[in-house]
Amino acid sequence: MKHLFMAFRKSAFFLLLFFIQLHAQKADLIIYSYDRPLQLYALLESIETYMTNVGSVQIIYRSSNEAYEQAYEQVWHDFEGLERYRQSDRPKEDFKPLTMQALARCEHDHVLFAVDDIIVKDVIDCDECIALMEQHNAYGFYLRMGKHLRFCYPYGKNTKQPLPRFIADDGHVCIWRFADGVLDWTYPNTVDMTIYRKEDVQKAFASFHFTMPNTLEGA
């Protein structure tokens, strides 16, 4: 009877885990890549290693020659289930339509954007991030941001930026208002590993013009 009871307890534990995973909130992922299949490979490996509750993974990519295209084919071979969209020889014309198409295909209420030179270095549970977003009515969950960002590198490596006044800081997650930040800390729209509500970005993206990740952020 002891062995039967232990077997039942173990089965119940796995059923509980399955129930939790079934009801976890997920974020679909849209990645942009241009002639960097090796970096994309490393990003996908790091996502598999560290991230949980990621929904679909969609990749909008460009390759300037056949060598790059063959290297991308190796990526598709090694990572199953990727949805991919190859840009044409007029990438500025198809970037927005492909982005809107990818957004429309996202099945979950939240979406996460990334570019191919990012590496995930620590554990991320999208369900936990989404729950915190909704709890605090946050615009986004900025996985790239951290209290170490005291310099704004896009403006030059010597450009200092003070940290904003944090509304909350438990040592794990910080909350701030864009109005209290400068430079990186007042930049709401980014494709550098930020989770948004699909409804918010889909509505915004439809209303303005963009042709590449940089102009998407700027718009």
- Binned, the helix content reads 40-55%
The helix tally amounts to 7
Q: What is the C-alpha radius of gyration, as a whole number of Å? A: 20 Å
Low-confidence runs: 12-20
Measured distance between first and last alpha carbons? 66 Å
Walk me through this protein's architecture.
The chain has helices spanning 2-22, 37-50, 66-78, 91-105, 126-136, 198-207, 213-218; strands spanning 27-34, 51-52, 54-62, 83-86, 110-115, 124-125, 140-142, 168-169, 174-175, 194-197. A hairpin with a 4-residue loop joins strand 8 and strand 9. The chain is built from 7 helices and 10 strands. The protein is 41% helix and 19% strand. The chain is α/β, with parallel strands linked by helices and 219 residues long. The longest helix is centred in the N-terminal third of the chain and has 21 residues, at 2-22.
What is this entry, summarized?
The chain is of the alpha/beta class. The chain has helices at residues 2-22, 37-50, 66-78, 91-105, 126-136, 198-207, 213-218; strands at residues 27-34, 51-52, 54-62, 83-86, 110-115, 124-125, 140-142, 168-169, 174-175, 194-197. The protein has a six-stranded mixed β-sheet with strand order 4-3-1-5-10-7, with helices on both faces. Strands 2-6 form a two-stranded parallel ribbon.
